[in-house]
Specification:
With 182 residues, the chain is of the alpha/beta class. α3 links the parallel β2 and β3. α2 crosses α3. The longest helix has 18 residues. It is globular. The two termini are 15 Å apart. The structure holds inosinic acid and magnesium ion. The site of inosinic acid has 14 residues, from β5 and α4. Magnesium ion binds next to β5.
Length: 182
């Protein structure tokens, strides 16, 4: 559905869950740890599109050490031949990661299926190290044993929008994280 009407757009925003200032403060903390931990090491950030591009852009500007950026994208689909949902990589990186410390930058971990698959693929390519940073984590929704090395905010089981996260491709432009009203 296309949303062009501003009052309809606004009516789906239930309320601010995490403010811009709260996000900013957490990002500086995490970036500081990255600056220390990866100093003098080749660093590659892999952002998972589309949800993590806003987080990536703020995070990388707080990273003061040399780093490179690359993008991957995945989608979940229901495979009729198997009882479970599968994850398909729709955009892959086209480079050798074996000489990099890789940090995957994700927007939110829900069931954990997407990241479990991406981590499996990247591990086969033997990076020097592989870690996962997620902006948000919904542990109560997990259907896999996947966990991030670092999550900035843990939230309850609710659908959130803003700061890169979408509902029907809208709301990525909100500068804060909000809850979607049903
Ligand atoms: P997972 O594979 O179930 O962990 O799902 C991960 C993907 O689902 C995320 O990268 C998001 O793109 C999307 N997602 C999960 N929960 C939310 C939410 O509350 N708001 C927006 N997108 C979400
Ligand atoms: Mg995502």
């Amino acid at each position: 559905m296309k949303i062009t009407d501003e009052s309809l757009f606004q009516s789906k925003i239930k309320g601010v869950l995490i403010t811009e200032d709260e996000i900013k403060a957490k990002i500086s903390q995490v970036a500081k740890e990255i600056n220390e931990r990866f100093a003098s090491k080749p660093l590659l950030l892999i952002s998972i599109l589309k949800g993590s591009f806003v987080f990536l852009s703020d995070l990388m500007r707080e990273i003061k050490i040399p780093c490179e950026v690359a993008f991957m994208a995945a989608k979940s689909y229901f495979d009729e031949t198997s009882p479970r949902e599968s994850v398909q990589i729709t955009l892959d990186i086209d480079r050798d990661i074996s000489e990099y410390n890789v940090i995957i930058v994700e927007d939110i971990i829900d069931t954990g299926r997407t990241l479990k698959e991406i981590v499996k693929i990247l591990e086969r390519r033997k990076p020097l190290s592989l870690s996962v940073i997620t902006l948000l984590d919904k542990p109560s929704r997990r259907l896999t044993d996947f966990n991030a090395d670092c999550s900035l905010f843990t939230i309850e089981d609710r659908f959130v929008i803003g700061y890169g996260l979408d509902y029907g491709e809208y709301y990525r432009n909100l500068p804060y994280i909000a809850e979607l009203s049903e």
